[in-house]
Amino acid sequence: MDKTIKVVDIEAFIRKNLNPERYRHSVGVMETAEKLAKHYGEDVEKAALAGILHDCGKNCAGKDPVNRLLAIGYPVSEMERLDPELLHGHIGALIASEIFDIQDEGILSAVSWHTTGKLGMSPLDKIIYIADYIEPNRDFEWVHPIRSAAYEDMDKCLVMCADCTLTFVMKKGKPIHPATVAMRNEILLQAGGTKR
Q1: Given this model, what pLDDT does residue 75 score?
Q2: pLDDT in tens, 130-161
Q3: Helices marked H in 1-115
Q4: Taking phi first (over 0 means left), then psi (-120 to 50 degrees means alpha), and beta for anything else, what does residue 120 get?
Q5: What angle do CA 121, 35, 163 make, to 5 degrees?
Q6: What angle do CA 97, 29, 162 make, to 5 degrees?
């Protein structure tokens, strides 16, 4: 896999298909994912590809993602049917596979699950989930402590990210995706019940 050609091709696709703010965010996630991968001794090239790809399905989320994902056997939940925006990571993984011929399961998983998280997240899954939160263009109340935690303890940082998501979703009065709750609980249980 030639990373340079792939990233250049992907950046051009994202620049064309996403708005300028989402493009800047995607580049920010790619660069942050590279830094996190270096810090934790993970594959920097895979982190860069997953980072630049993570939101490539964003504009496709309104173009019948439910039927597209059902066609490949993804079990779309009732919550995802009601809020198809939750599916943009899975659509992004399809785009990565179909348009850019990326078949690496680790990259595809990181793109698929960067919004909700999941049980049994790999280090690359965690890096992309965290990078999406802390990239330099993000500016929200909890971002600074989350940024600090990102380079101290990935699991502690994931719990902080999940807490932020849960608070945000509850304030909007929306249902919470069970994958986020499951991820958070799994990390806390592995840490003996607390990760603060």
Answers
A1: 86
A2: 999 999 999 887 889 999 999 999 999 999 99
A3: 3-17, 20-40, 44-53, 65-71, 78-82, 88-98, 105-112
A4: left
A5: 45
A6: 95
- The total of other beta-carbon atoms located within 10 Å of residue 113's CB is 24
Residue type at position 102: I
In the chain, helix, strand, coil percent, each to 5? 65, 0, 35
Tokens of 15: 């620049």
Q: What is the residue type of 154?
A: M
Q: Which residues of the chain are under the pLDDT cut of 70?
A: 1-5, 60-63, 193-196
> What would the two tokens of residue 168 be?
């945000």
- Residue whose token pair is 């793109």: 111
What is the distance between the alpha carbons of residues 155 and 157, in angstroms, rounded to a whole number?
5
- Tally the C-alpha atoms within 13 A of residue 112's C-alpha that lie toward its C-beta: 20
The pLDDT value given to residue 38: 98
